[in-house]
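Could someone model PRP with this protein?
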Amino acid sequence: MERQQRLRIAIQKSGRLTDHSLDLLARCGLKYSRGKDQLMCYGENMPLDVLFVRDDDIPDLVQEDVCDLGLVGLNVIEEKRLAMAARGAQARFELIQRLDFGRCRLAIAVPDDFPYRDLSSLAGRRIATTYPHVLARFLRENSIEAEIVTLSGAVEIAPRLGRADVICDLVSTGSTLLANHLREVTTVLQSEAALIRTPVPLPDEKADWVRRLLVRIDGVQQVKESKYIMLHAPRSALPQIAKLLPGSESPTVIPLDGHGDKVAVHAVCRENVFWETLEALKAAGASALLVLPVEKMLP
Ligand code: PRP
Ligand code: ZN
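Reply:
Sure, complex below.
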């Protein structure tokens, strides 16, 4: 099939979002083969191809319609939006869905021995970042005058190199800060991964695949925490048991032949089922408890 009929999605080549992005696409049913150092891979069972690029390039690739879709952090999206606004232009990619991974924050961090009290301690200081527009907005909103030192990477070593006094960078686990003797002092922006799309209208067949993909993504997000729970219980204990099942809709109740008053209860729980819940269910009269992962869900 030609490019006309195949969807193209841009994802981060190597970084925090890469594995999760590929995992999401695989859970949506995509089979692909990825060669080493390959820039693009072709979907084998869906008309969907994956392009591996630097995350900062994803908004442009999508708004210039080189790719139909992009999976990228809100941090990159917001910086792009503000950078374009500063030039009097408007971002043309469309945000279609926030995703349940890649959570992190853009934060200001200072060297361990930096005398930080509150935001005013940043006044007159040099702040190194790869997010100059988001940082500028934050400083403006807080009436802080500081110098922004725009770097293209390795922000965490800027203070040691004497290029800046403090930094403003993404923090996810915090291990990068720790390794560089930096201490987080305030959050500038909360971020997670999101799906963006081209501003150009898609031909019917492609639009249809985008819709299907969104339904599948929704299903993937729903089953993440969901569990299928099965147990036996005396019918009289049902009201109590129904109350204990975390986030479930009305459970299925099946009579058990030759067990008198006993029934089997099956339910989908939309939240994780912990040992404490199982113990409480047992105390309420349940037995033969079984908790299974849910693989797919389509309401
Ligand atoms: C970010 C950031 C830090 C790291 C922080 O990089 O620049 O290096 O993640 O994560 P941690 O708190 O878990 O140590 P990212 O993966 O976004 O790559 P990029 O900035 O090169 O695009
Ligand atoms: Zn990046």
